[in-house]
C-alpha cells in the first residue's frame, strides 16, 4: 500500500507545481471577495443600526437569505441560473466566484461590523454630539475606525474561511487548486495523491494565515 502511494506521487510529480500554483487563484478569490464583503458589510451594518425602517428591513432580509442558504447553491444560481434566466450567454467563472463570495461575505461581515460598532462606548456618540459633529461624520471618522480596530481578528477569520470555502469554485470550472487536482487525477487515474497535495497546501495556507491573525490579535490587545 505504501509502495503504491509512493509510486502514485512519483507518477504525478511533474504536475504537482501545476496543482500548487492554483493556490494563487484561491487567494485571489478570497481577497477580492473580502474587499467586496467589507464594503458591503459596512453598508449593511449601517442600514441595520440606522433609523430608516425600509433599509433596516432590507439589510436584515439580505443577511438572512445569504446566511441561511448554502454558498455552493448561491454559486450555482449565479453561474448557471441567472445567465440562463436573463439569456446572458457565457459568464466568466472567476468573476462570478468573486462576486458571489463577496455578496455572501457581506452578510457575515455586516454582523461582525455591527457588533463592533455596538461595542464602541456610547460616550463616543455623546461626545461627538456635544462637539457639534453630526451622525454620519461621527460614524465615519470616530466610531467606525474604533469598531474596525476591534474586529480585525474576526475579519481575518472571515478571510481564512473564504480561502477554505473557495475550493467549491471548482464546481464552475475555475482552475483553483481543487480543480487542478481533479484535472491531474483524471489525467493519471490517480485520485488520492493529487487530492492529498491540495489538502496539505490548504492546511499550510490556513496555518500561515492563522499565525498572522494571532499576531494581529495580540498586537491589538497590546495597543488597547
UniProtKB/TrEMBL annotation:
Its main location: membrane. Keywords: Amino-acid transport, Cell membrane, Membrane, Transmembrane, Transmembrane helix, Transport. One of its GO terms (biological process) is amino acid transport. It is found in: Cell membrane. SUPFAM superfamilies: MetI-like (SSF161098). One of its GO terms (molecular function) is transmembrane transporter activity. It comes from the Bacteria. It is a multi-pass membrane protein. The chain crosses the membrane at residues 23-44, 65-82, 188-212. Residues 23-213 form the ABC transmembrane type-1 domain. GO terms for cellular component: ATP-binding cassette (ABC) transporter complex. The keyword Kinase does not apply. The keyword Transmembrane helix applies. Belongs to the binding-protein-dependent transport system permease family. HisMQ subfamily. This is Arginine ABC transporter permease.
Amino acid at each position: 500500500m505504501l509502495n503504491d502511494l509512493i509510486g502514485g506521487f512519483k507518477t504525478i510529480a511533474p504536475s504537482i507545481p501545476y496543482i500548487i500554483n492554483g493556490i494563487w487563484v484561491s487567494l485571489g478569490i478570497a481577497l477580492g471577495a473580502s474587499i467586496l464583503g467589507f464594503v458591503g458589510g459596512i453598508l449593511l451594518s449601517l442600514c441595520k443600526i440606522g433609523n430608516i425602517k425600509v433599509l433596516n428591513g432590507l439589510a436584515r432580509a439580505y443577511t438572512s437569505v445569504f446566511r441561511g442558504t448554502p454558498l455552493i447553491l448561491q454559486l450555482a444560481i449565479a453561474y448557471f441560473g441567472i445567465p440562463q434566466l436573463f439569456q446572458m450567454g457565457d459568464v466568466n467563472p472567476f468573476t462570478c466566484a468573486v462576486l458571489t463570495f463577496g455578496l455572501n461575505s457581506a452578510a457575515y461581515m455586516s454582523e461582525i461590523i455591527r457588533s463592533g460598532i455596538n461595542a464602541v462606548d456610547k460616550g463616543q456618540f455623546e461626545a461627538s454630539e456635544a462637539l457639534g459633529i453630526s451622525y454620519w461624520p461621527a460614524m465615519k471618522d470616530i466610531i467606525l475606525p474604533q469598531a474596525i480596530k476591534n474586529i480585525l481578528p474576526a475579519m481575518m477569520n472571515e478571510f481564512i474561511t473564504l480561502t477554505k470555502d473557495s475550493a467549491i469554485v471548482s464546481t464552475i470550472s475555475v482552475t483553483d487548486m481543487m480543480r487542478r487536482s481533479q484535472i491531474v487525477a483524471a489525467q493519471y487515474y490517480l485520485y488520492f495523491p493529487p487530492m492529498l497535495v491540495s489538502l496539505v497546501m490548504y492546511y499550510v495556507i490556513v496555518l500561515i494565515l492563522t499565525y498572522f491573525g494571532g499576531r494581529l490579535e495580540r498586537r491589538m490587545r497590546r495597543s488597547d
